[in-house]
Design goal:
It is built from 1 helix and no strands. By secondary structure, the chain is an all-alpha fold.
Length: 95
């Protein structure tokens, strides 16, 4: 009887260890797949945010360039107005 128990123990212990190991590996694989999906979603969001940031920077540069051109136009118009006022001090300039 003791021999039978010993043989059963020698057979069942490795089988139980193998079962527990495969069960645990399955759980780890499921977690790894979930993490992989989460990572894909985060990468997609990152790409979208990065594209938006690039677009915003481009718009800011365009606005700065337009502002610079407008400031130059205003300065030129003020200079022209000064010239016109200095050329004809007694004449009125229509607004």
């Amino acid at each position: 009887m003791n021999v039978f128990i010993a043989i059963a123990g020698l057979l069942l212990v490795p089988l139980c260890i193998r079962y527990l190991t495969s069960w645990h590996m399955g759980r780890l694989r499921t977690r790894a797949l979930q993490c992989e999906q989460d990572l894909r979603a985060i990468r997609k969001q990152y790409a979208e945010v990065r594209e938006q940031l690039i677009d915003v920077r481009r718009v800011v540069r365009q606005c700065e360039a337009r502002g610079s051109h407008i400031q130059t136009d205003i300065f030129n118009a003020q200079e022209r107005l000064r010239e016109l006022r200095s050329d004809a001090p007694d004449r009125r300039i229509a607004a």
